[in-house]
Amino acid sequence: MEFHHLVRRIVQDGSTHAKWLNTLSFMENAGARKISKCEHPVMVTQIQLKHAAEEHRHAYYLKKQIGKIDPELCKTYESRELLAPVATRQYLHSLDIKACRYLQEVFQLTKEDLKYAAYLFVTYAIEVRADELYPVYQEILSEESSKIMVKSIILEEEGHLEEMINQLNEFSENWQLHANKILEIEKELHLQWINAITEEVAQLNYA
């Protein structure tokens, strides 16, 4: 199922849309928690704190949007309240593990330096994905005259991507070469996630 069509089907069904919002909220929250886990015990930059705070805010904002559909839906991140829960929980975790494995082979880093490198490259890959996903979602929301909007998230994610590129330029002059490898890993995991969601949505009956 083509991504535009998938998102449209999701948006057109209230309970499925609530789960989609909750799934995105879960992933934003997981991203924020991973950024925090990557922090050095003392050498924490303002930009890392900013990113973690903004990802947490995105998670909260998306969760709050569910109330516009039905305040009683998706109050937690239990599996029954997520779309494709297994793939959703594995996505970012698998990306982190595979990216760390690649970065360690290439750069031979200390534990703390590997954490920072993973923060840079994994966050970059996620921001590239967010820059593709959220505009499509917003386009569908606008076409469907939905009360829900994600324009504020789009603007912040664009800013995040620019900030990640600036940090990566400082980290390595060959960062793009390695970032492309991480993007390849992310693309495969993202496809698995989307396929799992597509399979779940395809089983739903719409009026």
From TrEMBL:
SUPFAM superfamilies the UniProt entry points to: Ferritin-like
Domain of life: Bacteria
UniProt name for this protein: Ferritin-like domain-containing protein
Classification of source organism: Bacteria, Pseudomonadati, Bacteroidota, Flavobacteriia, Flavobacteriales
